[in-house]
Design brief:
Length: 143
C-alpha cells in the first residue's frame, strides 16, 4: 500500500482482496493505490450473462466525501452507460454518501447490469430501443 494513503482506503482495499465479491474483481494499480482495475462478469440471468467487462475506478482526493469515478472500458450496449463508458447511477452522483464503500459501488454497477433502467437513460438511443424492442436491445447486448 502507498504511504500517505488514508486508512479507510487501505481498509477497503484489504477487504476487497480478502473477501472478494462474486463476479467482481478489483485490483489496485501497482503505481497508484487510488486507481483500481475492475473486472465484472455479467450477472446470471441478465442480458449480459456471458460478458466480462473491464472498468476503471478512481478514488479522488476527497474520497470518501465525494464519490469514486468509475467508467466502463469495455464497450457495452446499455441504456445507463454511454459510448464513453460513463455510468448513470445515482450513488455516483447526487445520492453519494460517505457511508458507502467501493464494494457498494461495484455491487450497484453489477445490479445495473441485471436491471437496466431505460427511464433514466444516459444513452438515449439505447433506452429508446430498450423501450420499443427490448428483445432486440438485449440481442445487441455488448459490442
Amino acid at each position: 500500500m502507498a504511504a500517505g494513503l488514508p486508512r479507510r482506503i487501505i481498509k477497503e482495499t484489504q477487504r476487497l482482496m480478502q473477501e472478494p465479491v462474486t463476479g467482481i474483481q478489483a485490483i489496485p494499480d501497482e503505481s497508484n493505490a487510488r486507481y483500481f482495475h475492475v473486472v465484472v462478469t455479467g450477472p446470471e440471468g441478465s442480458p449480459y450473462e456471458e460478458g466480462v467487462f473491464k472498468l476503471e475506478l478512481f478514488l479522488p482526493e476527497e474520497y470518501p466525501m465525494s464519490a469514486p469515478k468509475v467508467r466502463f472500458m469495455t464497450k457495452i450496449y446499455h441504456p445507463n452507460i454511454d459510448k464513453l463508458g460513463r455510468i448513470c447511477l445515482d450513488i455516483l452522483k447526487d445520492k453519494w454518501s460517505p457511508a458507502l464503500q467501493i464494494r457498494t459501488v461495484l455491487l450497484s454497477i453489477q445490479a445495473l447490469l441485471s436491471a437496466p433502467n431505460p427511464d433514466d437513460p444516459l444513452a438515449n438511443d439505447v433506452a429508446e430501443q430498450w423501450k420499443t424492442n427490448e428483445a432486440k436491445a438485449i440481442d445487441t447486448g455488448y459490442l
